[in-house]
User: What shape does this take?
Amino acid sequence: MTLNVYLSGEIHTDWRAQIIEGAAGLDVSFNSPVTDHAASDDCGVAILGAEPNKYWHDHKGAMVNAIRTRKGIEDADVVVVRFGEKYRQWNAAFDAGYAAALGKSIIVINLPEHQHALKEVHAAALAVCDRPGQVAEILRYALTGALPG
Assistant: This one.
């Protein structure tokens, strides 16, 4: 069995690399949104033209980024959504909702202090983790049946 995993969420830490490293040797392919923050923010105006109004600047970027995000989530077997500690990731919450609407298997990563704020997202998830290594172990177990250790 092969798993296609989409890694959604915060882009300020190396959590994606930790999961990919932890899943080494497994039959897993990974995809994610553009993680270059400046490119993600400015892709719409860089491609479609400048916008003096910040709302339309952000709107163009969101639309262009949604092409990759929708495709990645739709093709995924598993969607991992990480909520970081520093910023509110409204886009990650939207991705989790979209994945849930498509019936995708969802794994959430967040700090314990955010459990209450994310209770609806957690209700749609099949697993809630507090560190990336747990995601790799879930993938390992799903593919091999092997427990950690």
Summary: Strands lie at 3-9, 28-31, 78-82, 105-109, 127-129.
